[in-house]
Amino acid sequence: MAGKGTVCVTGAGGYIASWLVKILLSNNYIVHGTVRDPGAAKYSHLTKLEKASENLKLFKADLLDYDSLVTAVKGCVGVFHVASPVPSTAVQNPEVELIEPAVKGTLNVLKASSEVNVKRVVVVSSVAAIAMNPSWPKGQLMDESSWSDKEFCRKTKNFYSLSKTEAESEAWEFARKSGIDLVTVCPSLVWGPLLQSTTNSSSLSLINILKEGLKEMANNMGWYVDVRDVADALLLAYEKPEAEGRYICSAHAFYKQDLVEIVRKLHPNYNYPKSFTSGDGIDLKPTTKKLEKLGLSYRPLEETIADSVESYKQSGILE
């Protein structure tokens, strides 16, 4: 079967990007993956993927090094910009460590894509660029028209949300001026099995529920989605000609206490939080009608949790 053309995936060794590379290879794409060091052992999971030996090429690239990105996207008809700084610990200087690389990196990818006449760019944003909106009407489902309030993010020191909001809004500004065909996908908290050898920050949030034995946990509302569904959503956003604008990608909305009960029923023997304090009272929920209309259906949460736990056991993170 003839290939579907060449596409580039930035940050190819990351959690979402690894699954995207896997699905692209299995759908007969040739993939250019950007990584920091193509020879590093931590990317060996990519080279072991089916069809990787003939259809995956890893490029040494840095989001802040424009020329390295041009080299990686040259010859590509599509680009998936997945790489973005996600801190697993507190950042000392958010402007330098988070916001600047997120914004500058995204613009560099878009400029490089524009320079080599890429047909469509799909950017992974986040519900972090949607949900931090204190003026959203209470009780109304959040949709793609909602944007996180930048001043509110600064005031509440939510610098990750600020970085995603700044990066996505700058991306749309660039698309308006340049005419590049841009689609953004905004996933919520991503769980599901790991392909990479390192633990990422969103998986840690589930691992901590299972093993930290926390004395108490705030009973906040959370939104969740399976990493494999995110990869499917990105492919749909790229392949469907009618795809346009932003897409919320989130399958489930639960209060933490209810979520922990679901996990506990499936795996009763782990060290769960002992009690719950009242949360922040925000119970906003997203609608994903737009993405479902494009053809996405979500896995059940129980499947995501079961496959996540199995994956953590296999990689020695859980016993």
Strand percentage, roughly?
15-25%
Name of the top-level CATH class:
Alpha Beta
Question: CATH superfamily name?
Answer: NAD(P)-binding Rossmann-like Domain
Q: How helical, in percent, are the residues?
A: 40-55%
Q: What's the CATH topology label?
A: Rossmann fold
Number of strands: 12
Strand order of the largest sheet: 3-2-1-4-5-6-10
Overall structural domain count? 1
Structural class: alpha/beta
Q: Which outline best applies? A: globular
> How can the largest sheet be summarized?
7 strands, parallel
Radius of gyration: 19 Å
Q: Write down the overall mean pLDDT.
A: 94
CATH architecture assignment name: 3-Layer(aba) Sandwich
Give the N-to-C terminal Cα separation.
43 Å
